[in-house]
Design brief:
367 residues; alpha+beta; OB fold (Dihydrolipoamide Acetyltransferase, E2P); five-stranded antiparallel sheet; 9 helices; elongated; binds adenosine-5'-triphosphate; ATP hydrolysis activity; ATP binding
Length: 367
């Protein structure tokens, strides 16, 4: 059983770099938490503080409810896997995996049993006699994982463990790692800059930028309802469309949303009206996922935005349409394109839109 809690943790390096800035984060027992963010945002430093390899400048790192700032790494019941998984080249695969057990003084018989169990769970049972140099990259990574889990740690820390592998293998190991840690019930903190990894593997994702925690939530939450504009623009491919709009609430209970030179009239009982009504007289940013916009015929009735397609991009399972609506460029998933759209390049109506981002861009002069 292991829980991790970071309370206002800050790390300032000697040269004055603020690598981690007041981060508070709870990781539950058995949870798979992914720290996601661009290079240099401080995710490895967070992980190293949890491991005890860096000391926080201020704040508390808590393990199982106890402040662990001064606890040496070896007393933390932690296993770490890094991207440059160093195996002992002169030892067999079996001996590599068994090594931590040997250090812990475990007898050969139970040691062999544990190694066999772990190797079979990782699908490397048939290569135990080989040397690391006789393995593929993926097999070597599995051995590194095996060596980390063989002592049954309470907490698993992984720093970009798949980044040196090719994309096919990465996808395969992604599923294996998340499956294995869940099977073992080990609390895991996994660092990556790869959002596909984060969204597919995590129970919850913590997104960082410049040392600051931006958002924490399940993959569905952070993708669907990002907490900040940064997260909205960072997550998802294609990126979320972000459009500036002006809001005007009419006393006879409807809302006008003006995007560029187009206005949408939203009835009061429309859920989107209530979402934007709070911003009466303001300019806001509206977030719309490509897949949340349904292309319809240009003359369709109702709250339809008009756009002109600039180009289409085919991805096999979907096509993306890049449109101009007024002065703004947006992208739309064409899966829902209407059957009567005989010409791919032309006017489109777009129905529905997504979320209001909580950002003001100043008061608008609304008529
Ligand atoms: P990456 O994905 O590239 O590993 P990261 O998000 O893990 O990046 P960190 O390695 O935590 O980022 O680094 C955060 C910031 O702290 C960076 O600006 C980095 O240059 C700086 N940094 C890291 N270690 C030190 C150090 N020992 N001394 C000074 N600055 C450091």
């Amino acid at each position: 059983m292991t829980t991790v809690a970071l309370k206002d943790v800050t790390k300032v390096f000697r040269d004055g770099t603020v690598a981690v800035d007041s981060v508070s984060l709870d990781v539950n027992d058995g949870e798979f938490m992914v720290l996601l963010g661009p290079s240099g945002c401080g995710k490895s430093t967070v992980l190293r503080m949890v491991a005890g390899l860096e000391e926080p400048t201020s704040g508390a790192v808590m393990l199982d409810g106890e402040v662990a700032n001064d606890l040496p790494p070896r007393e933390r019941k932690i296993a770490m896997v890094f991207q440059d998984f160093a195996l002992y080249p002169h030892m067999s695969v079996g001996d590599n995996i068994a090594f931590p057990l040997k250090l812990a003084g475990i007898e050969p018989a139970p040691r062999g049993e544990r190694v066999a169990d772990v190797a079979s769970a990782l699908g490397i049972g048939d290569v135990l006699a080989r040397r690391p140099s006789q393995l593929s990259g993926g097999q070597r990574q599995r051995v590194a994982m095996g060596r980390a889990i063989v002592r049954r740690p309470g907490l698993f820390l992984m720093d970009e463990p798949l980044s040196n592998l090719d994309s096919g293998l990465r996808a395969e190991l992604r599923a294996e790692i998340s499956g294995l840690t869940r099977e073992l019930g080990v609390t895991t903190i996994y660092v990556t800059h790869d959002q596909a990894e984060a969204l597919t593997m995590a129970d919850r994702v913590a997104i960082m930028r410049k040392g600051v925690l931006q958002d924490v939530g399940t993959p569905t939450q952070v993708y669907g309802r990002p907490a900040t504009l940064y997260v909205a623009a960072f997550l998802g491919s294609p990126r979320m469309n972000l459009l500036e709009a002006s809001v005007y609430v009419h006393l006879d209970r409807y809302v006008t949303l003006t995007l560029g030179d187009q206005a949408l009239y939203l009835p009061w009982d429309d859920i989107r009206s209530r979402a934007v009504a709070h911003y009466h007289g303001e300019r806001i940013v509206v977030g719309m996922r490509a897949e949340a916009l349904t292309p319809v015929a240009p003359d369709s009735p109702g709250d339809v935005l008009q756009g002109r397609i600039r180009y289409l991009e085919h991805h096999g399972h979907e096509s993306l349409a890049f449109l101009d609506i007024g002065a703004t460029a947006i992208v739309v998933d064409e899966v829902g394109a209407p059957a009567d759209s005989d010409t791919p390049f032309g006017q489109r109506g777009l129905r529905r839109f997504g979320q209001v981002m909580q950002r003001f861009t100043g008061r608008a002069a609304v008529p």
